[in-house]
Amino acid sequence: MRVGYPCLNLALNRGTNRTLRLASLGDQARIRAVVAANIANLEAIIRFNAEHRVRLFRLGSSFIPFASHEAFPYDWRAAHAGALRAAGALAANSGQRLSIHPGQYTVPGSPDERIRAASLAELRYAAGLLDLLGQPDAPVVLHVGGAYGDKPAAAARFIASLENEPDVLRHLALENDERTWSAAEVADIARALHTPMIVDTLHHRLNPGGIPLPRAIERALPTWRSHRPKLHISSQDPAKNPGAHAHGIDPADWDELLAALDEAGAPDVDIMVESKGKEQSLRPLGHPTIPALSSPTTAPRAGAA
């Protein structure tokens, strides 16, 4: 079992989601500086992870800000290929698996053709980024999105939008959500697209679709045909609305996942720990050498998240 965390490292005070305003896309020098900072931060995080035996890390979705936007002013693939390949080699040499999770506005099942087109452009960017990083088993994690009052029609649009996108499908992994699409429903869509499916434990607790967690994991496992299965775990923040991530992982939630994996016959999996505590949340999960923060309120500088 391998665990990891998303987007930023609190101990290093470094993140991979630095961005800028859309209005700043005309300033090439500024964009290149932001991208260079994200790549440098990624390399620092990869080195940290290697030192502390952390094997998973998720890049921020704005790693190259607005890369899929029609107004992006230069060929980011050509401009950053060398640096991206170097960062990817650093990850590969230390056995780290990367991933990326496009934001909530990436909705290829939308009834709006413009939104579908923009969503496909974002997914092509994400897949192309992982290709340049040399990560063939790196997932582009995506929710199915809205049902728009007609789930079968929404699922059909989602499948139709993606079924002729081989570069995207090589990386795509679908995830259940806490309101609309249960793990069983997402597994059906994943099978139709021949893509893997990720079970998120908190989303499943809020939207179980009538099946317990071990059965949801059993539905997902066969979709991982050629790569190591991946799951997400998070705990509910008791002070916030349902679905909000806590700072760490409740030991009861961790024990529940371990028991479900054992029942489902899936001991060798990758688990993305989605918590506000980032790498700090891994300390009680088998990575005690990760340095604790000097203050629990320590946060990354502006723009690093």
Topology:
Blueprint: E1 2-6, E2 8-9, E3 14-15, H1 28-51, E4 56-59, H2 76-93, E5 97-100, H3 113-132, E6 140-143, H4 151-162, H5 166-169, E7 172-175, H6 183-193, E8 197-200, H7 201-206, H8 213-220, E9 230-233, H9 251-264, E10 270-273
Parallel strand pairs: 1-4, 1-10, 4-5, 6-7, 7-8, 8-9, 9-10
Antiparallel strand pairs: 2-3
The gist of it:
The protein has about 300 residues and is an alpha/beta fold. The protein has 9 helices and 10 strands.
Q: Overview of this structure, please?
A:
There is one protein chain. The strands form two sheets. An eight-stranded parallel sheet has the order 5-4-1-10-9-8-7-6. Strands 2-3 form a two-stranded antiparallel ribbon. The two termini are 27 Å apart. The chain has helices spanning 28-51, 76-93, 113-132, 151-162, 166-169, 183-193, 201-206, 213-220, 251-264, and strands spanning 2-6, 8-9, 14-15, 56-59, 97-100, 140-143, 172-175, 197-200, 230-233, 270-273. With 305 residues, the protein is an alpha/beta fold. The longest helix is centred in the first third of the chain and has 24 residues, at 28-51.
> Percent of residues in helical segments?
25-40%
Instruction: Give a short account of the largest sheet.
Output: 8 strands, parallel
Query: How far is the first residue's CA from the last residue's CA?
Result: 27 Å
**Helix and strand element order:** EEEHEHEHEHHEHEHHEHE
Q: Mean pLDDT, rounded to whole units?
A: 94
Gross geometry:
globular
Low-confidence stretches: 297-305
Annotation, overall tally of beta strands? 10
Tell me the structural class. Answer: alpha/beta
Strand content: 5-15%
* Tally of contiguous helical segments: 9
Radius of gyration: 19 Å
